[in-house]
Amino acid sequence: MTANLLEVATRVEGARAEEQRELLIAAFETFKGPRDSYVPGRIRRWHPQWFAFEKMLNAEAFESAAMTLVPEGGSFQVSRGMDADRTGFANISVAGDDPAVEPKDFHAFAATPALALTAAALRALAARAGEAE
Predict the structure, then answer these.
(1) What is the pLDDT of residue 2?
(2) Domain ranges for the chain
(3) 9 burial class (0-12, 13-18, 19+ CB within 10 angstroms)?
(4) What is the DSSP-derived secondary structure letter of residue 127?
(5) Which of 37, 54, 76, 106 could form a disulfide with 124 if both were Cys (CB 3.0 to 4.6 A apart)?
């Protein structure tokens, strides 16, 4: 992986709506690994989740694609804002292992709801992976 989760989250938050597809692919590869790889003998292998993700992108179901990046056990809200430049907002709550501890929230504003959910998901995943903010 060439970028860490927080770097991609920052790129996503600053992106234009036209860049959704490209940045969702970048988020997928940063979190889940390369969509394809070559092995000795020139055999191409695809990530097992790539084709389902690509179908969502091809259908322009960007919010659905972004939902696949939400950490397991996380709950989320997505909304459209009124700001012309940042019309998407997302918040993800992720509970820890201790039920006595309040869930931690991760939020993001971006050009679209899908990009906002992607950025919030990447921030939640970064916290889980121990990346410093």
Answers:
(1) 39
(2) 5-129
(3) buried
(4) H
(5) 106
